[in-house]
Amino acid sequence: MLSIVSVGQIRSVTECLGAAGLTIKLRKCCFGRQHLLYLGHKISAGLLAIPEHRVTALANFVKPITAGSYPALLIVPVHSLLLPP
How far is CA 25 from CA 17, 44, 46, in A? Predict the structure, then answer.
């Protein structure tokens, strides 16, 4: 669903970005969106949520039965083991 975004609002945002020395790529812009997905999160009206399909996947996750199936779940970056908590 699209909401109404005025040209004045778009101009205001681009002026603020320009004043900060930032630029945008118009080919990557979408104006008037109700929500967007960014880095696996749903952002809308100042709210941040996990998309429903991810919540469902976690709720339906099959717990490991044998000890041999645990290593696949315990993927930890090596550098995190070297740093103190």
Answer: 12, 21, 23
Question: What residues are paired with 33 via a beta bridge?
Answer: 2
* Percent of the chain residues past pLDDT 90, beyond the cut: 9
Judge residue 7's burial from the number of C-beta atoms within 10 Å of its C-beta, 0-12 exposed, 13-18 middle, 19 or more buried: exposed
The token duo for 59 is 């709720």
pTM above 0.90, yes or no: no
Exposure string over 10-48, b if 16+ CB within 10 A, otherwise e: eeeeeeeeeeeeeeeeeeeeeeeeeeeeeeeeeeeeeee
